[in-house]
Amino acid sequence: MTNVLPQPPAGHCFHCLQPLPDDGGYQVKVAEQQRDVCCYGCQAVAQTIDQQGLLHFYQYRDTSNPLQIPLLPEELKQLEAYDQDDLQAQFTQLEANGLRTTTLSIEGMTCAACAWLIEQQLMQLQGVHQARVNATTERVTITWQPKQVKLSQLLSQIAGLGYRALPFQAATQEQDFKRRRRYFVRRIGIAGLATMQVMMIAVALYFGVVDEVDGNMRQFFWWISLLFATPVLLYSAQPFYLSALRSIQARQLNMDVPVSLALLSAYGASVYATVINEGEVYFESVSMFTFFLLAGRYFELLAKQRAIATAANLVKLLPATAERETADGSLESVAVNQLSAGDIVRVLPGQTLPADGVLLSQEADVNESMLTGESVPVVHRQGDTVLAGTLNQSQPLRLQVAATQQSTVMAKIAALQDQALANKPKLAERAERLANQFVKQLLLLAAATFLIWSFIDPAEAFWVTLAVLVATCPCALALAAPTAVTGVIHQLNRNGIILRNTDTIEALRDVKTIVVDKTGTLTSGQFALHQREYPSQQPVLADALAYALELHSEHPLALPFKSLQPEQHVQLSQVVVDLGEGIRGQWHANDGTQQEIRMGAPRYLAHWHPELSAQTSANVILATEHEVLAYYHVVDQLRDDAASTVKTLQQQGFEVVMLTGDKQSNARKVAEQLGITKVVAECLPQDKLAYVKQQQQQGPVLMIGDGINDGPVLAQADVSMTFGQAADLARQAADVVAMRNDLSAVLALLDATKKSRRVLRQNISWALLYNIGIIPVAVMGWVTPYIAAIGMSLSSLLVLANSLRLNRQPKR
């Protein structure tokens, strides 16, 4: 097939069959031969067809009528469809810098070496900024520049390696799992049936049942064994060969290379012995080896499915259809992907919200446990933001759509999960590199074993080498890290904690200092106006100005002012938020004058009114350069779990430091209630950043904050944590996002990562112990090939079972 391809008439393009230009055109290598083509376009397409293994396009086309021949195989046309913007909007995220990010499902992956190979090939493409593959979930997360490289090119690159990549669809994941399970069950079934038949014959031969029969009868039994073992080798063991061929093609050896060598060598030697009726046959070893390996891969598939079920179930919560209001007030049923911002939808009790939006109903009880891990319904009121995937529990509600599909909070959480699964801790990367290097050393060891045994006992040299190839295959080492990381990520997800950066698992090991912001972190962030004073005797004007200014702020302190209902309208321009200090703008008075107005902490207005700090205890002041318009006392309550969480952290040996921009007196008051002895108050954003840098000189720091002004310090800390209701800047900078909005989430984080580190080290230690310990046993010839297969499979299953313990940990 590779070289015998129909040729076009002389002087015509090999691809499009049109006449070549006078200069002869261009050339492209297809099926190991140079072919003449007419242009760069045909050259590129022909090269892609050859790389994708789609040579049947050329083999079976009818060259007699060039005008009826398509220029692209159907397979490539399907890939090009993914370049359409409306289709990409359903499964990609557009980043602020013009990059696009998507998650693809990979079919055909078998181990960590496959993941490494795909990553390396994708990163070679110009325009690909990042490609991270997770062998456990069999997904790749790619960030690329659409102006430099198309998505279809990325899919083609993966297909050229022998894998099939398609946009990840959580709704079809269960069907994909069932299909792959049937794929393994069929092969295991054939291998199992054949193994039973071949073993019966082998037992008869081993125990001398046919000793009294002539050699012809023995050879007849061998031929029967060959008949049963052949389907096992050609069909059941096919996954190992495909994986090995892909790795050899990419010049990166994986674990299936020694497995394939062992199977083919044992089968070939046995066939030779059968034909010449001399020597020994090991058809039962081939069949049993294949059966145990397939069984191990099958159980590995089941374990992976269990590990990733949490994320899949999260995304499948979104409904397929929604009830949208029409212009005349009637309802129409539409697909969720047809909703757009501004649409009004109705959701009945017991139904799932199809999109993020603003609540138009007076009140609604919403179960947000799928996001936060808390089963108690949350009461939302008119104007509140409600999220897709949450459950309406009490009465029909109306909401105005704000975000759909990939823009919803639910989709962003799923993207964070995929990002975390794609990222690998440094320990996991070292384990993968070690596994890849181990395969090369294993092949060298097998060659040395064969040479040594050729002098000791030539008859046993082949079978001892075979056992070495099988027993020392580092499958368990390759599984050790990915399975443990996947387990802890989904344990945290069940508790409403999203881990964005898996290096956090290792980084938390050395953390002894926890720096905590006060407002919105130690306190609930539910501010209320406790007291108002108007020295200018203009309360209506002051409240109107405060309302107009704070509409431009996302700071938690701005919320109570946004709920004011001013009786007067004021005009502002050039409004600027000064992070960590306050907000200012130009006020256009009714008399035509214009002056700057400021609102914020006393220190923010100190250069206008130096006496403020001494004269008032108010924490928010509204003033112009000439007069103070209002003093506002905004109060906040401590979180219910703040005191118990701080106490537990201190008992565990952590130093808890309060770092806040609030006044020293307010900060001290809160610290005394919580038992915090170290307080750093009245800090600007740059002061917070400087303090954390200073603390990092003494050791790693965990920073917990939720405000816009906490973004820089969260990015600076060794590990950072924020909450689902935090400002966007804080969520983007943090390594961990606690969707359940409880401070005690930090205890769950510390506990889960501690257990995961223990499991990760147990996995790697066991895998190394097994692989290093089995080497001398196998080299000495004390392990038969099928016992080696059992040992290798059991070592991998032990690693998987140990990692699954993380999924059984009870929720806090």
UniProtKB/TrEMBL annotation:
Gene Ontology MF: a single term: copper ion binding
Key word Magnesium present: yes
CDD domains in UniProt: HMA, P-type_ATPase_HM
Regions crossing the membrane: 188-208, 220-237, 257-275, 281-299, 438-456, 462-489, 764-780, 786-804
Alphabetical GO biological process terms: copper ion homeostasis
Keyword annotations of the record: ATP-binding, Cell membrane, Ion transport, Magnesium, Membrane, Metal-binding, Nucleotide-binding, Phosphoprotein, Translocase, Transmembrane, Transmembrane helix, Transport
Pfam families xref list: ATPase-cat_bd, E1-E2_ATPase, HMA, Hydrolase
Main localization, broad class: membrane
Annotated membrane topology: Multi-pass membrane protein
GO cellular component: plasma membrane
Residue span, HMA domain: 100-166
Subcellular location: Cell membrane
Family classification: Belongs to the cation transport ATPase (P-type) (TC 3.A.3) family. Type IB subfamily.
Name of protein: Copper-translocating P-type ATPase
The organism of origin for this protein: Pseudidiomarina sediminum
